[in-house]
Amino acid sequence: MSKISKFFKGGGSAASKGRGAPSPQEALARLRETEEMLSKKQEYLETRIERELAAARQHGTKNKRAALQALKRKKRYEKQLSQIDGTLSTIEFQREALENSHTNTEVLKNMGYAAQAMKKVHENMDLNKIDDLMQDITEQQDVAQEISDAISNRAAFGDEFDE
Q1: What would the DSSP string read from start to end of 104-132?
Q2: In this structure, what is the dihedral angle of CA atoms 110, 116, 117, 122, given to the nearest 10 degrees?
Q3: What is the pLDDT of residues 5-30, one digit of tens each?
Q4: Where does the record place the region Disordered (predicted)?
Q5: Does 29 map to a domain?
Q6: Closest residue by Cα to residue 95 from 37, 33, 31
Q7: What is the pLDDT along the chain (163 residues), one digit of tens a residue?
Q8: Which of 26, 61, 94, 142 has the fewest CB atoms within 10 Å distance of its CB?
Q9: Could you tell me the pTM of the whole model?
Q10: What is the C-alpha separation between 64 and 71, in angstroms, rounded?
Q11: Cα-flanking dihedrals φ and ψ of residue 61, to 5°?
Q12: What CATH number is attached to the domain comprising 108?
């Protein structure tokens, strides 16, 4: 099979065939690489625009044809630059959406783990046992308070004399 037909029929690498969708980290890395590549292309086009503008000024009225050609190239570069700006905006939006989706997925996964942990902690608890325990604690606190009150009352040796 020719290289072109493999390309159009999805003849990619063995790793991409067997796995399916890429992981969020892989997709984010590729989006960042694309952003970097487009940023470099932007810088290149900006310098080319400046160079063509300088060439147009240099030729000025002396060589109108060369000046017009320089201005046409400048306009073409500006059009490419605006297309790259739009593409970059789209890629940034997609990257941010993917990052947010990945964050939401991780949060949801962690909340699920926490819910399972809470379920495991609570599976050995019975509400009736808890009510009984709380009543026992309340009774013991009342007994402790009575003992504390009895100890803290002044002993009335001799004050209460029975005639």
Answers
A1: HHHHHHHHHHHHHHHHHHHTT--HHHHHH
A2: 150
A3: 444 454 444 444 456 788 888 999 99
A4: 1-25
A5: yes
A6: 31
A7: 454 444 445 444 444 445 678 888 899 999 999 999 999 999 999 999 999 999 999 988 889 999 999 999 999 999 999 999 999 999 999 999 999 999 999 999 999 999 999 999 888 888 888 899 999 999 999 999 999 988 888 765 555 555 5
A8: 61
A9: 0.56
A10: 10
A11: -90, -10
A12: 1.10.287.1060
CB neighbour list of residue 20: distance below 8 Å, 6 or more residues apart = none
Q: How many domains does the chain have?
A: 1
**Pair of tokens at residue 133:** 């325990």
Record the tokens describing residue 160, joined without a space: 């209460």
- Give the separation between CA 7 and CA 28, rounded to whole angstroms: 24
> 């790793």: which residue's tokens?
15
3-state secondary structure of 20: coil
Instruction: Residue 16: name the closest of 1, 4, 29, 26 by CA.
Output: 26
Instruction: Give the total residue count for the chain.
Output: 163
| Burial class, 86, CB count within 10 angstroms (exposed 0-12 / middle 13-18 / buried 19+) | exposed
Contact by Cβ (8 Å): 31, 90: no
Structure tokens at 152: 């803290």
Boundaries of domain holding 85: 24-124
**Residue 116, token pair as written in the block:** 């399972």
